Every structure is written in C-alpha cells, then in structure tokens.
Amino acid sequence: MGHTSLEKIIALQKKTPHIRNLCILAHVDHGKTTLADCLVASNGIISSRLAGKLRYLDSREDEQIRGITMKSSAISLHYTTGNEYLINLIDSPGHVDFSSEVSTAVRLCDGAIVVVDAVEGVCPQTQVVLRQAWLENIRPVLVINKIDRLIVELKLTSQEAYTHLQKILEQVNAVTGSLFTSKVLEERAEKDAEAQSSCTENGSGDQVYDWSAGLEETDDSDLYFSPDRGNVVFASAIDGWGFSIHQFAEMYSQKMGIRSSVLLKTLWGDFYLNAKAKKIMKGAQSKGKKPLFVQLVLDNIWSMYDAVVTRRDKEKVEKMVTSLGLKVMSRDLRHSDPKVLLSAICSQWLPVSQAVLSMVCEKLPSPAEISAERVEKLMSVGARRFDSLPEQTQELKKAFLDCSADETAPVIVFVSKMFAVDSKALPQNKQRPLTQEEIAQRREQARQRHAERQAANQSAETLKGTELNMLPTALSVKTAVEEDNKEHFVAFARVYSGVLRKGQKVFVLGPKYDPSLLPEGCSAADVLPSVPHMACCTVDSLYLLMGRELEELDEVPTGNVLGIGGMEEFILKSATISTSPSCPPFTPLNFEATPIVRVAVEPKHPSEMPKLVRGMRLLNQADPCAEVLIQETGEHVLVTAGEVHLQRCLDDLRERFAKIEISASKPIIPFRETVIRPPKVDMVNEDMGKQQKVAVIHQVKEEQTKYPEGVQVDSTGLVTLTTPNKMATVGVRAIPLPEEVTRLLEDNVELIRTMEQFSLFAWEDKTLDINQKILENIQEFKVKLESNLQGRKWRGAVERIWAFGPRRCGPNILLNSVEGYRRPSVWQCLEREKETEKAEIRDFDNSIASGFQLATLSGPMCEEPLMGVCFSVETWDMKLSAPLAQQDSIDEDSQTAEPNIDNQNESSDTHETNASSASSNRSRSGAEAAGSSVDCYGPFSGQLIAAMKEACRYAFQAKPQRLMAAMYTCEIMATAEVLGRVYAVLSKREGRVLQEEMKEGTDMFIIKAVLPVAESFGFADEIRKRTSGLASPQLVFSHWEVISSDPFWVPTTEEEYLHFGEKADSSNQALKYMNAVRRRKGLYVEEKIVEHAEKQRTLSKNK
Ligand SMILES: Nc1nc2c(ncn2[C@@H]2O[C@H](COP(=O)(O)OP(=O)(O)OP(=O)(O)O)[C@@H](O)[C@H]2O)c(=O)[nH]1
Ligand SMILES: [Mg+2]
C-alpha cells in the first residue's frame, strides 16, 4: 500500500460522519476510470505520472485491452481538509451491457460523481445512471470532464466554450428536473390518497399530512447542478487538472480584494467586471462584455494550453510557472511531448483530486445521514405495507437511521454481488517479504530436510516399502495445488448498522426471505434451519477493498464498504446479512438491462462436461446479470445482456471458471409468436378478395390436413376438442390483443405477480396485506386495461380474465367466456371490503389454466413463447358427476357464447354455431357411452390439461400467425462525413431510423434507430469499422415487434405469382427466421432442398 497505512484506514472507518461512500457513474468512455486514477494517485498508491494512463481500477486484462470497464471495483482513499475523511470509491462501467454492475455499485453508496464528457454532453447512459441514482435516493455531484477537448479538438474560444458548458449543464439539469417533477407529482398523489384513506378510516379526518406539499412549494434547489452551489467540477482528468469555482473565488478574492462569497455568487452567470469602477456588474451578455467566468477562469486555462501545447513558448511557460509559484522538473520542461509538461504544470496548479474530493466531502452525505425514505424503500418486502411487517422488523428502521456502531446495535449488511478472486490474491496467501530471522529459519529448515533426505535415501536401498510411503505425500501435494487454483468468492457488501466481526454468527437472508414467516419469539441464539431462504453461518474473513488488492480486517464498523470471504456456500448473487432474524431482505436491485443474447455452450471434449457445468455455476454466481440454464434439449445455455458481455462471460468461462476449451453456438435469437387480425391487403399491396385466387384449391387442401381427427374448427376460428376419455369438451378461440394491451401487460408484470400471489393466499384462506400504493397501481392498471379493451367483443372482458400466461404473468390472457360460470376474479385483491357474492370455483379449473400456461409457453410455429394473444374459453362441458343435469346447460352454452366474440363474417355465424353445438352433442353422447368405464387415458386432470393445450394451439393456428422479433434501439453519434455509411449499415441490417438531429454546438449528428436483435451481431463492430472508429453505437433492448410478412404465405393471386415466382421463398424473412429456429430445436422443417434434380438447362428455344 502507498502512503496511507492500514491502521490509519481502520481508525477512520470508525468515524462514521467522516466516511463518504460514492461511485463514479457516466456514459461509456466519458473518463470515469481516468478520473479514479487521479484520485488514487493523490493517495500515493500509484505514481501521479501514470495517473490516467494506468487505469488502475481496470484490473482485468480484457478491460485493459478493450479500454472499457466491465466490473465495478472499490478502493478506500484518505483525504484531509481540516478534517480527515475516508472515501470509499467505486468505479463502475459505462457500457450498457454491464449496467447491472452499476446497480450493484449504486446500492452500496450514499452519493455519486456523475461524469459528463464536455464534447459529447448528455448521452443515453448518462440519463440512465442519473435515473438509477435517483431511484436509489443517492445524491449526485457533477464533473464535466475532457474540457481539454474543447480547446485542442474543437478549437473553441473561451467564450464559445462557456456557452457550450452552459448548454451541457442545462441538459443535465433537464434530466434531473424531469425525474424530480415526476416524483413530486407521484408523491403528492400518494399523499392525497393516504390522507383520504385515513379520513375515511378514522372518520375524524385527522390531517396528518401536509396538504400543501405541491410542486411549487417543494424545495428543489438542492437538486440542480450549478457551479455556484459547489456541486460542479470542470476537469480534464487526462491532464490531471480540475477546479470548482470555489478555488478561483479564493484565489481572486485576495488578488482583487473582493470578498470570496461575492465572487462565488458571480463567477458563474451573467456577470462582468467593470474595470473602471472596480465593480462586478450584471448583464454581461446584453452589454457584450466578457462574463466573469471567461475572464477570470477560462482565459487562464486557454492561455496555458496556448503557451504549452500550441505555441510551445518556453519563455512564457517559465514565466507562468514562476508566477503561479509552481515547481516543474527540468526533464518535464525538456520533454518532447508537450502534454507531459502540461500535466506536470496543471496537476500542481489545479489538482483534480483536490477539487473533486473536497466537493465530495462537502456535498455528499455521510452514511449516518441516511434518509427515512431511503430506509423504507430498502426495507420493503415485496408488495407488503411497511406497517404490516412484524413489529421487530419495523423496529429495525431505527437501527438503519441511527447507523450506530454500538455493541447493542444489530448488524445489518447488504451484499450486492459476489466477485471471484484468485486464491493467490487473498491476503492470507500473499507472499510478503521475509524478515531476516525468517530467512535464517528457512535456511535451517532446508538444511535439515536435506540431511533427512540423504538419510532416507541410504535406507531406501535396503527398504523396499519406501515407495509406498512416498505416495501419500505426492497426493497431498497435488490437492494443495488444486486448492491453490480454486476460485474464491468475495461478497461485495456494505454495513448499514452495527459492527461486523470475524467469527461472528450471522443469519444470511436470501432475496425471497420473509420475516413474517418467522415463528414467534425467536432470537439470534436459536438455530432456525427450517425457515426458508435463511441460513446461519460464521463470518469467515473480512477484507478492505483496495482496487486490485485486498487487505485483511478483523472488524468493519457501520457505514463502510467491505468484502466478505467464505460466503459462496450461502449466497448466490445478493443477500442480506444480519444478527437479527427479523431483518427484512433488502429490495432487489433494479437492473436496467434485459438479458437477451443467448448462446448454447459445450466443451470441446465431451468428457469435460462436468467441468463446464461447474464453471457455468461459478459464472452464474460471479455475474449479477448473466443467467445459465439447461434447455429441454439438454443444451447448456448462457444468457447475457449483449455482445460484449457475452464475450466477457465466455472468456471468464474459458480462463477462470471451467478452464477448458469450449465452443459456443451462434447466438440464439429469441422470437415471440402471435396472431393478428386478418390483413386487408396482400403481399403486393392489393386489396384482399378482389383478385382471382389461382391456388385456392391447393390451399383448401392444406387447411384440411392441418387438423387431426376429433378437432372441430369452425370458420370463425372456434376450436372444440374433447378429452380422450370423452368426459370433457372445451371450445377455445384465439383473439389478437390490441398492441397497447400487450404493452400494458408487459409493463406491469410485477403487479400481475402480486395479484397472483394474493390469489394464492386467498386460495389457502390467508390474506396478504398489500401496500396501498401497489393497490392503487393495480387499480390504475385495471382501468387502463378497460379503456384499451373497448368494443363489442371485449365487453366485460377485464372482469372475466381467468389467468395471465405463460408463467402466470406473461403478456397473454385467458378469458372466461363460459356461460354460467362465475369464478373468483383475478382482481379480488381490489375488492377486499366489498365482499362480492361468492363465486364458486369449478373442479378442474386449474387444469384449464395449466393447459393455457403450457400453450402460451411454446407456440405451434416454432415452440417460442406466445405474446399478445387472448384465448377465450367459450365452452367447457364436463360429464363427470352429474352428466345429465349438465347436459342442458351445456347446450345453452354453445349457443349463447357467441355475442362477445370477434366475428369477421356475421352471416356464417349462426350456421356454424349450430354445427359446433351439434358436434359437441355428438361427442357427449360418445362420452355417455363410455360412461363409467375404467379410464385408460391416465388421470383426468392431465387429460384436460392436454386437451386445453391442444385446443389453444389449434385455435392459434386458425388465425393469421406472425412472428415477433426482439428489437434494439440505438443511438449513434456520427459526424456528417460518415453519416452516409452509418445509414448504409443500418439499412443493410433492416434497421429503421427514427430520428436524426444535430447536436448543438458540435458537428455531430445523433441518429436514433431500431434494429432487430437478429440482425445485430457484429453491428457495433461494423459501424466502428465503416466510420473509422468515429461512431460506436450502444444497443439497448427496447421492445418486440410483429414481422409483417406471413411465414406460411404462398402466392395465391396472379400478381403475387408474377411478383414472387412460384416458390416465393426468396424474400420471406419470417419464414427464414422460423425455419432457423425449428432447425435449431430439431423440429420438422418443411423445405424442398433440391427442386429439380437435373443439371440446369438453358431454356433458350434456339438450342
Ligand atoms: N482528451 C481527454 N481524454 C480523456 C480524458 N479523460 C479520459 N480520457 C480518455 O477517454 C478514454 C476513456 O477513458 P476511461 O477512463 O477508460 O473511460 P470510462 O468512463 O472509465 O469508460 P468505461 O469504464 O468503459 O465506461 C480514454 O482513452 C482516456 O484516455 C480527458 O480529460 N481528456
Ligand atoms: Mg472505466
């Protein structure tokens, strides 16, 4: 370690008010790690000459090679300004693929340094990280980095640069402003609602809440970034300088005899210096004067760059150096690269570490200042109301707020991720320099060993058994080597209360742990092996995180970031550790990235499969966002957030976790299957139904073969199917959901899960106390669904929802349209008080829902999940207990089920209905005949599930089917020269440009585009190559989009034949995608590989 000794840091760890936990956040490449280097150098851990070049916190080899950060890593620094501070700094990655690492960092901090590139300004990830900081209630400060680029690259004058910087500040503040207003509005609504409910509950109308807390009154002045508030630093991390206007205010107040508080208020803004009157006046812009910031601050820097870098004026440089009172080494003065001299001067004159660290200590809160709001957010268990948590749990809120390191304070620790370290890197295994005595001791030992060996050798000649004796030692050596290579996991954590000690007994609480399930009156001393998601263990080792190094600690008091060893058995990815079993698990981290890129991996040598399996398990633990799973086909699949992330995971597997050669398949592209309303125009944009169908006969023939015997399909798409034992018949119809509804369902997965949980509880006659805000959200969700499901066919549909699927929360709906069947609503959590008339659940209700779940999990096109489909169960006849009594009602069923349903051609309606009811009658009489004979088809519920699943699949096939493709959005920044090439790449890959605009103050264009995931592999690389590195896009998953072409399409009209030819397989993208998926899954692919097995002929008549 450098200057600061371990003892010093340990002492500082105990002074909670003087601790700052912070992370550095920014868009990719805006200079986070470079800035961190400067801060690390200020502690003497690395040389200040190397600061900015070393990127010390990028400790992985691939991070250094690629030049981007992939893992967040922490380091503890020491800083003195009057007071001594301990700064726990976490550097985070900026690439979208690793945004989960940002989430894990943000959770452990109280503040953040948001870095913005002075040229690029606010970028997509800047907005994302600002939102993340906001969601976690941590306070940000701003560093505008790379100011040198304004001088050297853009060649702006100081005045232009000032305007440019103002714009950047405006942009950043606009982002925070929008976050703030949305939150204030939300909060006000919440408070109104709570106040109202307390009025109605108490009847007395106690006004507990401040009604006036509106947008106008709420204090937002702390929120915005402004240099005069001291929360902005201007910097060039690579050249080692940075300043806040405080420093210049101090400097000039002595020189000019103006109070520094006045300068502080006027250095930034529309003020100028009236030289004659020696006064600072307002209105620089209107009077055409130089603003104070330009005159007193920027001009100095500009002239420094001018003298050192542009003109290389030695004399002037020397003059400046002496006037600033700096010392520059002569070898720097003589160096051929002017940047070396520049950073030597500037890092003394305006050291960036000084500016940033003093801002951090002043403006960011200490761990003790944690807000009640944040605590409640961290502690909320799922959808529960805070006050419905057990009393002991609620009491812990105080422990959070106290943040006390007392003996009596409960220990509360949150682990946000697990990271792997080589066992060699652990401090206990590290080689340290030997002392003189130890060297002497070892020499003595070696001498003894040598003597023993010689003695043994002599006796070996006489004794044959020695070889056997040698064996065990050889073995033990081998296991020691294996032990050496073992991966050790260290938990990346923070203490929120109490003191965590080595050897302490603690509870490890999984993310799904629920303190209310705890038996009454148990304490930490009890062993509670039976409580789910809870384990009891002893703290093995504690580490201080120092970037690439770890230092061993005996205890860590509250408010500090730390590493915990020996937890890999108990923690998968994240967990809460506490001495109190009533501690709630922390709310799960919110990840911004959706894992979407999947590959199948296999070992090069099949015999190494177990190693791969073990490696995948370790990888899963070490990466917050990667998922590993085994598909039904037996493939081992790795799911990652993007291409770069995938590459890193594969490298990790090869080199660290599995240590074998592996081969990865091409990325598996996910699709969704859906149905749409019958299209109005055909493939050549002609109105349907007007042309002569050439291939009608051909089609009809196909239609008939599509459905096996026993499946009845009417022309409106109602599918009726009977179980093999003929006991039950279901009639199902598939209806496309409006796009908005699908989106609503997707956006509200969590709410649907909560509703599902509530229903499960209700099933067991228990109740779940759902937090008021979530209830409101559910209510709102319901209203939105109702307003989007308008029209005759959807009448009352929202009330009749039976289930969501797949996995009970997906974007498909099962609708109960069975006449006379009223089942408990999925919305029952909203109707607690009303206690509506008892709805009965029919036997086997669950089987129908399960069939639906299975059907939506994998569709008939290529076994991909369904999306945006509503299955309406219109008939459900059972012939179990009272066959005759039911028969009448069933007859009614099939006739009255019509009104709610989407019918394209009304005329055929009645006719078909009769047919279907007739058919159901027929099947019923069959069932009667089968009567009570022994069922040879297996359990009835299983039969019903299978029948329901099949019915859904056929109903799906009776409608026009489409594939849906996953889409990325990307923002590409490019200069005008390369714009054309960017467009070319985009259109080649079926991308669609949404927006193009010029970035103010630069010659850059920002292009927003969407691109199918299927076409995205290598996209970023291609763009980079085609634009010689000037544009590098970041792809973020955005949504699913219906591919308009029909995969089952065959040309039927004259025009289509003319246009596409007889086979028409050249341009059908959907078909290509579908066949690719089917081929991968080993499903039947209908393809003609060779059409004419003859040599190609020239069809010229002349020959
Ligand atoms: N001109 C200039 N370049 C800088 C400055 N700071 C950093 N850079 C360069 O910007 C590039 C990215 O710097 P990093 O520090 O790796 O950026 P980062 O934000 O950590 O990137 P990620 O971790 O991948 O998100 C490097 O090539 C740096 O040399 C600066 O102040 N001026
Ligand atoms: Mg970095």
Tell me about this structure.
An 8-stranded antiparallel β-sheet has the order 14-13-19-10-11-18-15-16. It is built from 33 helices and 34 strands. Mean pLDDT is 80; it is low at 200-215, 463-482, 691-701 and 882-934. The chain has 1103 residues and is of the alpha+beta class. α7 (158-202) crosses α11, α8 (245-256) packs across α9 and α20 packs across α21. The longest helix has 45 residues, at 158-202. Magnesium ion (MG) binds at residues 32-33, 58, 69, 91.
Can you lay out the helices and strands and say which pair or pack?
Layout: H1 6-13, E1 19-26, H2 32-41, H3 61-66, E2 73-81, E3 83-91, H4 99-107, E4 111-117, H5 124-135, E5 139-145, H6 147-152, H7 158-202, E6 232-236, E7 241-243, H8 245-256, H9 260-266, E8 271-274, E9 279-282, H10 284-287, H11 292-310, H12 314-324, H13 330-334, H14 338-349, H15 352-363, H16 372-379, H17 391-402, E10 412-422, H18 436-460, H19 466-485, E11 487-497, E12 499-501, E13 505-509, E14 534-538, E15 541-546, E16 549-553, E17 555-557, E18 561-565, E19 575-578, E20 597-603, H20 609-622, E21 627-630, E22 636-640, H21 643-657, E23 662-664, E24 671-675, H22 696-706, E25 711-713, E26 719-722, E27 728-736, H23 739-747, H24 749-763, H25 772-788, E28 801-805, E29 812-816, H26 845-857, E30 869-878, H27 883-896, H28 909-930, H29 940-957, E31 961-975, H30 979-988, E32 992-998, E33 1004-1012, H31 1019-1026, E34 1034-1042, H32 1054-1060, H33 1069-1080
Parallel strand pairs: 1-3, 1-4, 4-5, 5-6, 29-30
Antiparallel strand pairs: 2-3, 6-7, 8-9, 10-11, 10-19, 11-18, 12-17, 13-14, 13-19, 15-16, 15-18, 20-22, 20-23, 21-22, 24-31, 25-26, 26-27, 27-30, 28-29, 31-33, 31-34, 32-33
Helix pairs in contact: 2-15, 5-7, 7-11, 8-9, 11-14, 20-21, 26-29, 27-28
